[in-house]
Amino acid sequence: MDKLTRREFNKLIALGLAGSTVGLLGAPKPLFAARSNVLVIGGGFGGATAARYIKKFDPSIDVTLVEPKALFYTCPFSNWVLGGLKQMKDIGHTYDNLKSTINVIQDEVVSIDPVKKTATLKGGKTLSYDRAVLSPGIDFRWGATAGYDEAASQLVPHAYHAGPQTELLLKQLQDMKDGGVVALCAPKDPFRCPPGPYERASLIAYYLKQNKPKSKVIIYDAKEKFSKQALFQQGWQKLYGNMVEWRSASSGGAIKRIDAQKLELETEFGVEKADVINFIPQQWAGKIARESGLTDESGWCPINQKTFESLKHPNIHVIGDACIAGDMPKSGFVASSQAKVTALAVVDLLRGIEPEPPSLANACYSLVGKNYGISVASVYTFSETGITNIKGAGGLTSLEANEGQLSAEATYAEGWYASLCKDIWG
Amino acid sequence: MTLKQGVLKLTVALSIGLVTIFGINCGGGGTDERAKEIKRGQILALSCTTCHGPDGKSAGTMPSLQGKSAEYIESQLKRYKAGEGSPSIMDRFAKAYTDEEIKLIAEYFGNLK
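YS: structure for the whole thing
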């Protein structure tokens, strides 16, 4: 490896990311062609990161970000709000810091024409693009469980899109009597944030232990196992005793029907009543991806796992929860990691350069109690078989971790969120 | 000369010019090889920037990498990889990278302004 001075190194980075493998400036298109135009749809973890990094990697590209919300509430840390450890204002992020370099439009994309390379907004405007990055997140499969549709979610919140739903569930928990039962229904795979429901059960238990200690949380699971299971179960036992109960699908966890008015759940063992129900439905890719023909029969978006370009329509890259990305789970950190390598790929492709293989990662912290954190780490590489987890690396917090280490993990969880959000929303 | 040929010639000229201006010594590997290494380092480092900050400056409790030398970062990552660091998520991350990749990541952060 030859030694460059710091100045030389940074000039190489600035002048086109050490450019291409064919020359320091990369392909010459930007010297003569009209300015390239990238449209980013969705301003969550994936979309906002992609918009910022495309602009960072090539300031000559015009980047437009379309997002309906002026204030974006993150699902990560919304469980901390339910536990009383954060407030809604702590998890809301505006787009103000993106606006100096990115054209942020507060609107919703209602249709995409992949042939004309245009997108139409709810407000009526049509935007054209050279390449689009779509990060639409998830939607719920309303009706997949009998009795649970969008109207029912106003009585029995899913709280899996952070915002008013989080506030509704919070209020129900606050209004519940001591000695009440909270039923938390976790969905089948694949779904957004695999440890999310279990961190939620933990932090609801944390709240109840402080305020309503005779109460109970029962997790009705549509699965036989779950993310970070041994760590969560160890933590529940240590911190909450028998306050948290988990039922696998085959042990009465699978929900056949829900009555949102009566707050009843039906499993194969009969009908049970709860005082608060948090029902997290089955999921699929966000509506705009489904309606634009970007999904397959699974309801998720197949992509070229090197560039995240859709296998259904060229020039549209799909990132985040909506895409099928090999071994990668659906998480905010993953969406951001995918967005960065996609930003590089988009810049390269616009310059006529073949993108380099990506390197991706996931770091996910969960809180089991106030000073009790656990984490999972993974690094992913790209090969002919797609994106795969690097074996022999990554993994979970040790089950042998001592109190100090678990407390440090809780501190790092806060740092993780602060850094992640700063990187994305500035 | 077609436009494409003209563009190609200009690119080559500019590339040579850059090498001259910056006085980059690319040794036996050549400019392409060096540029490729730097780009690989940047791609690998993108995973780190989410917690440690895009400029190596962390916004929260995660340690900042800004101002730390490439040699220091490389030695720390290798300690984590060998399981010699204090147990944290970094032990698990460092094991995913070869020594050569660790060197490229360290070089990227060590050169940040």
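YS: worth flagging: Chain A has ten helices and 25 strands.
IM: good catch. Also Residues 18-31 of chain A have pLDDT under 50 and may be disordered.
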